[in-house]
Amino acid sequence: MSDNGKRFQLPSAPQILLATAVGVGIGLVAMGQLKNFYSHTPLSGKSNLAQTLPAAAPNSAPNKSKGLGDFSLWPKLENRMNVLLMGVDSNGRDTERFTGCRSDTMIIASLDPEAKKVSLVSIPRDSRVRIADNHGVDKINSAHAFGGPELAVKTVGEDFAVPIDHYIVIDTQGLKKVFEALGPVEILIEKPMHYRDRAGRLNIALEPGINKLDAAGLEEYVRYRHDAKGDIGRIERQQWFLRQVKKKLEEPQVLLKLPELCKLAEEYVRTDLTVEDMLKLAAFSKEIKPNKIQTAMLPGEPVTISGGSYWVPSPEASALMLHRMTGAPQSVSVIANNTGATIHSRRNPRSDEALAMDASSDVALASDVASNDSLAAQCAAAYSDKPVSIILRYPKGCEETAKNLEARLKEKGYNVKYQQRGELSECQHEQVIASSYRADDDLVAKLKDSVAELDNYAVVVHLEARACSDVTIVISPNTIVAAPLVVTSTDDKGDEKGKTAATEPVKLNTHN
Predict the structure, then answer these.
(1) Per the domain annotation, does 505 fall within a domain?
(2) In what order do the strands lie in the sheet with 269-271?
(3) Any idea what DSSP says for residue 132?
(4) H/E element holding 374?
(5) Could you read off the pLDDT of 213-234 as tens digits, one per residue?
(6) Other beta carbons less than 10 A from residue 31's beta carbon
(7) What percent of the chain is predicted at pLDDT more than 90?
């Protein structure tokens, strides 16, 4: 106990490993950065905390209603922090780790202490952008190869107007070794995954359902991309993986493996986070609930340009989504001028002409008309007084659940446009997909408040200018939704009859 009588609270293992559930990368860094801290904690029989923690701010008027356990010396995360997470592969044996390698995974993790929310935005590795410092136009994953994490951070900041505060890079071999140390993890596999890659040394043979996967199986799950969705499907699985692995990291025995994990962090992780930064993340993680983690992928579409496959971001949808999820300013023209199918490549003299021919007309013209004014006009049209519209997606066998949920939603005044029976592989996870431009945090929060069973549903942001509905609710085979209450009334003859309660349609006012 410190001199002022306030108890120091040692974080739990998952708080350090997860650091607000933004991924194993942050967790590894936390352990690596905090290894010196642990040498001064009761784990080693020492208690010299003054050497590790920053001085606590004086408190001249403590709240007497709080018990000692309510106080903590951990520094607090006061402002939003954006961290660029990257996963890289080595270039083979006898090569320097982290040098000259591309980032196969790029995620902007935005930690918002005011909203007590974590947002994870995946950037497809094939996104066509200008690489900072005059490295020309290329796929965004080449930025790390050209200039390491610093150039990758600068490229993301310049091309998408997103302020990046810190970076974390993890070698994929390190991720595999982490899970060798942690042991098997339960993962819900959405569909059969079978693929053999001799060059990549992968022999994937995974079956759908909840599986307890060892390190090799986990690597196979997050790297599989041999289906119709390709790399986009892999991004979706990585996001679900980050949610599901949380259970494993909460196991008490993980704390006993911290020394081994610290050594792995030193070898396989690079970051510019300080010890104090990691302490802030660990403290912030204590306040985050699973339903306050949102995921998204940079909006856009696949395009073939001069024989190469690229992901072309949508300027308006990307600007709006990044503004909501990372706090970035709405910068449609910046995104349009630095990404897409029409930007000029100094490496390809004929690119201006070729790109206009190769790309679809909608994409080719996007940068000419994209602006904050056009986005404002689209948002104004989306924020109308029409009832909030919803599509229900369910797997075969869940017709009764979908019927109950539709009745509950209509009871609260929502417009259920239709029910859609989807493939089982697409309905394994309960989720609320925010689709239209007016489907912001407030709309989703009101929806969850209207039907209690939706409270723990994962929120996925997938904004489209011409979305079919404001929200899509995905029902899984394990979903349970109670039927609406029946109100008994009498008709003119005095006979009892049942009807469900009805309310006014849910409407939204114009919103900026």
Answers:
(1) no
(2) 269-271, 166-171, 81-88, 103-112, 117-122, 293-297, 458-461, 431-434, 471-474, 389-394, 415-421
(3) T
(4) helix 372-382
(5) 998 888 888 878 777 777 778 7
(6) 28
(7) 46
